[in-house]
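re: ur question from yesterday

yeah so i grabbed the chain u mentioned. its 116 aa long if i counted rite. heres the sequnce exactly as i have it in my notes:
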Amino acid sequence: MVLMFMSRCLLLLAPLAVAAQAPAPSASGLWEGAINLPSGVLEVAVRLDRPASGSWAGTIDIPAQGAMARPLANITVDGPAVRFSIAGVPGDPTFAGTLSEDGATIQGGFTQVRVS
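ran it thru and got these structure tokens back, copy pasting raw so excuse formatting
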């Protein structure tokens, strides 16, 4: 089952490994948070990674929907702007957010077009 919604999403958790003197914050890592829906909160975990020689890759877990390691598509990180969509899901669910200056949070909106 795929929930159809247009809501705000706040992903909160620094990447698992934080260097003592990291240069600039990075969107790479494991991020955990929630999508606030009219019916409640949907917990999510997002993994973003960019190998030194490649493009961004990532997955999303939405345990309440039984979705684990669902691939992300169209991942872009441009300065603090972070954007991705969930591959192969009707309604093009897309997140667009901003990485905080300290690299501790990514906050933004998660949208999905209602599919009848």
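noticed a couple things. Residues 6-13+25-110 form one domain. also The CA atoms of residues 23 and 94 lie 28 Å apart.
anyway ttyl
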